[in-house]
Amino acid sequence: MRKAMVLFACLFAGTVWASEQAGEHGVANESKDAEGDDVAGYILHHVADSNEYEFEVPLSHNHIPIHLPRILIPFHEGACTPMADTHGGHGEVYPGLGQGCLDLSITKHTVMMWLAALLLIGSLLIWSNRDKTKLVPRGAGANLFEMLVLFVRDELAIKNIGKEEGPRYVPYLLTAFFFILFMNLLGLFPWMATATGNIAVTCGLALCTFFVTQAAGIRAAGIGGYLKHLTGGVAPWLWPIMIPVEFLGLFTKPFALTIRLFANMLAGHIVIFFLLGLIFMLRNPAVALVSVPFAFGIYLLELFVAFVQAYVFTMLSALFIGMSVAMGHHDDHHHEGGESHDHGKAHHLG
Amino acid sequence: MSDQEPRKQADAPGSELGETARQMRAAEPYISAVWKLVGGAVVGVLGGYFLDRWLGTSPWLLLGLSLVGIGVGFYGFLHAMARLGKRK
C-alpha cells in the first residue's frame, strides 16, 4: 500500500512538473496548436481504414508501406477517375458510390478480417477435439476453447433463446463470438489494426444478426405470421403507415449493435493514442511518467474489453433471436417465463 | 468435446431463460408500443418531406402526413396498450 502511494505521489508530482514546464515553455510556442493537430491527425490516421498497410520499423523513422490492390467498378464511363484530395492526405482519392464508382478495394481492415478468420480456423483445427474416442480435451488451448464454446452455448444461447430453440442458433453465435474476439485481440498487437473499429465491419456483423433474427422469426411464426406481425395488429386501412413504422422498427436493434461495437472498440484505441500523444502535445518527456502507465492500464482494460465486446455482441444477438423466436412460439413464451407480447394476430399462427 | 456432457448441462435446472431475456421479453410489448408512437411521427414527417421534394408541393404534404403519422402513432400505441390490458 505504501509503495503504491509513493508511486502515485511520484506520478502526480511528475504530472504537475510536466504541466508547469509546458506552461513555461510550451504554450508560448506558436507551433503548439499545429503539434496538437499532428497528434490528432496521427491518431485518426492510425485508427482509420486505409488502402495501404504501413509497417513502422522500431526505433527508426522508417515506414514500409504496402499498397493493397484497388478494385474499382465504374457504373459508367470515367466514373472512377481519381479526384484531388482536399483533406491533405496522401494517396489517391476516388469518387464514391453516389458518383457511380463502386469501391471494392482491399483495405487494412479487410486484411485484418482475413487474418482473424485464418487464425480462427487454424486454432480451431489445432485445438478442437477431433478424436471422438477421447471425451476429455487435452491441452490448454483445447480446454480454453471448450470453456468458451460451452459458455456461449449454455449462458448465451440457451439462456436467451430457450432450451428447445437455443442449440439451433449456437453455430452462428459461436462464429460471431470468436470472429469478433479474434478481430478485437488482433488490434492489440503492434502493426495490427482493429477491424471492429470500422463501422462498415460492425454494420456487416449486425446485418448477419439481423438476417438470422428475421429467419428465426419466419421459422417460428411462418411467413404469414411474420408478415402479419409487420402490420402491427391495426386495422387494414392504417397499414400504409403502420407497415413502414414496423419495418423501420426492425432496424433499431441491428443499428444499436453496429454503433455499440464500433464506438467501444474505437474509443479504447483513441484513448491509448491520446494518452501517449500527450507526451508530444505537451512537448515534455516527463509526461511519459504518467501517460505511459495510464496507457498501459487502458491497454489492459482493452484486453478485457475485447472479450466483453465479443460477449455483449453475442449476448444481444442471442437476445434478439430469442425475442424473434418467442414471437412465433406463443405457448413456449409462457413456459419460459416471459409475458406474452401483443402483435395482433401474428401469435395465432405460431 | 463430448456429446454426453453438454446434454447433461443443458437439461440441468437453471438452464432455462436468463433473467435479462425474461425481462426483455416482458418489456418487448411496451418497447413495441413506444416505437409505434415515435415511429408513426417519424415515418409521417420523413414521408411528407420526401414526397414534397419529389412532387414540389412543399410544405403541404409534410404538414398533412406529419399529422397523419402522429395520429396513427397514437392509435397504434393506444391499441397496443388496450390489447395488453385485456390480456392481463
TrEMBL record, chain B:
Region Disordered: start-end pairs: 1-20
Record key words, sorted: Membrane, Transmembrane, Transmembrane helix
UniProt key word Electron transport: no
Pfam families attached to this UniProt entry: ATPase_gene1 (PF09527)
UniProt entry tagged with the keyword Membrane: yes
UniProt-recorded name of the protein: AtpZ/AtpI family protein
Superkingdom, natural source: Bacteria
Residue ranges of the TM segments: 33-51, 57-78
Signal peptide boundaries: none
Record organism: Corallococcus caeni
Start-end of Basic and acidic residues biased regions: 1-10
